[in-house]
Amino acid sequence: MNPLEVSAAQNRWSTDPAAEKVCLYGGLLLCAMLLPPRTGAPLVLLATAVATLGLARVRPRLFVLALLGPAVFIAIGSLPIAVSLRGGPHLEPGGVEIAVNTALRSIAASAATIGLAMTTSMADLLDLARRAGMPAALCHVADLTFRLVGILVRSARTAREAVTLRLGLRDPRGAIVVIGAQSALIFVRATGRARAMSEAMSLRAEPGMTAVLTADRPVRPARLAVIAAALTVVAVAAVASWRAWQGV
């Protein structure tokens, strides 16, 4: 099991209904997308941290490491919005503001998504999706994709450990060659294992007919009311702070 799966199975909210957690983190995701980014994104990040680290008791180091990769990718990807290369490198008029707003929204939305992944198992999410009416074929594809990603991660970890033991990363030039060969090996090996796994799952049942074993956990109206109140507080605080900042 990868660290995300372990966290989803061992956190304080692991036995809570998946629908409640989807409402919470899905609401925070919508807040990150719709609220003013300069005030809404920090509040969404704060609410996500309180829920994930304080209430669900997810390991802070794991949460930070999981968010660090997307945050760096988003920051680098926002640079072309602010900088133009036509006629020489220069800042686009209004580009910095758009880049900052885009980065804030994206990082806050990523934090909410990671919080859901760290508190809810894939089996619970698939069961909830089936109950909500998602076609069985789409659930099968999601399940298969999740398993393929796990195979790819395990293959990459094993190959990297083997390369490290062989001292293949001693100098930059050798590291580039080794990483290129390692990537090709991982792709071929993961593709073969994925094909075997897909055939095995097809032999067990028709695509979309495989079931997941989950406990029946009814949604608690009181908890949904608390979630709705918390999301309302985040939205009102973000809008009020934005209007005060703009002097409206």
TrEMBL record:
The keyword Transferase does not apply. It comes from the Bacteria. The keyword Transmembrane applies. Its main location: membrane. InterPro entries: ABC/ECF_trnsptr_transmembrane (IPR003339), Cobalt_transport_CbiQ (IPR052770). It is a multi-pass membrane protein. It is found in: Membrane. CDD domains: EcfT. The chain crosses the membrane at residues 39-56, 63-83, 173-192, 224-245. Keywords: Membrane, Transmembrane, Transmembrane helix. This is CbiQ family ECF transporter T component.
